[in-house]
Design a protein that fits this description.
Keywords: Repeat, TPR repeat. It contains eight helices and no strands. The protein has 234 residues and is mainly α.
């Protein structure tokens, strides 16, 4: 028997090699079971947190309908905090299980994003009900909604209102025109678009007067220079 064949037979039939191979297989199986169990625990925790966030959002909606804006804002913020913690858990899970182990089921991911979007949308609505409106925050929340739900008419409308109040009539016009395409007969959208057009017209008249004043001043200065030159030659 050739030496190479004899060596292969001995090597492959070695009880030590078989034992090591079996041990590795058992370790891999144990690791797979552990990962699966950890994923199931994470999924159960995600379900619990999602249910808590939805409960808080629903309470916020009830408070909003009762005109209790302060309590509604509190509930929406708490719901977002729960979801933010959930996002952190999911990120950690991806690092632990690897990119091929999806930490969220499709329905969980959809519920998470929808709840976040609703909370930001409702927060923007609440802020517009306050006596002293923080339009920068209204704009921030509405733009978050539009990142995840681009055609949301309410978010487009609020983004337009906020932009107008913050002095950006051109941007306000863009958002409100998009909102009007979604709700062409909405009285509030029409009213805000009218305000935008009035603001743009006012800005145009101011700009026109400014340039006219600059041009008149330049003509006067040019005329004075001509007079001075003519006087020099007298």
């Amino acid at each position: 028997m050739p030496m190479g064949v004899y060596y292969d037979k001995c090597f492959n039939s070695s009880p030590l090699i078989k034992s090591t191979s079996e041990t590795l297989t058992l370790e891999e199986a144990g690791s797979s079971v552990a990962c699966s169990a950890a994923a199931e625990r994470l999924s159960a925790r995600v379900d619990s947190q999602l249910q808590e966030a939805v409960r808080l959002k629903t309470e916020g909606n009830d408070f909003y309908r009762e005109k209790n804006i302060r309590s509604a804002i509190g509930r929406y913020h708490r719901a977002l905090l729960v979801l933010r913690g959930l996002d952190s858990d999911v990120t950690s899970a991806v690092k632990a299980f690897g990119p091929h182990q999806a930490p969220l089921r499709a329905e969980q991911s959809e519920l998470l994003r929808n709840t976040q979007t609703d909370c930001y949308n409702n927060l923007a609505a609440c802020l517009l009900q306050r006596e002293c409106v923080d339009y920068a925050r209204v704009q921030e929340y509405s733009l978050k909604v539009l990142q995840w739900r681009p055609g949301d008419v309410k978010a487009l409308y609020r983004s337009g209102v906020a932009a107008l109040e913050l002095g950006d009539a051109q941007t306000a016009r863009q958002y409100l025109l998009q909102a009007s395409r979604g709700k062409p007969n909405d009285a509030n959208v029409k009213k805000q678009l009218q305000r935008v057009e009035e603001r743009l017209n006012t800005d145009y008249q101011k700009e026109k007067a400014l340039y006219k004043g600059m041009f008149t001043k330049q003509k006067q200065e040019a005329g004075e220079e001509v007079v001075e030159e003519s006087q020099k030659h007298v």
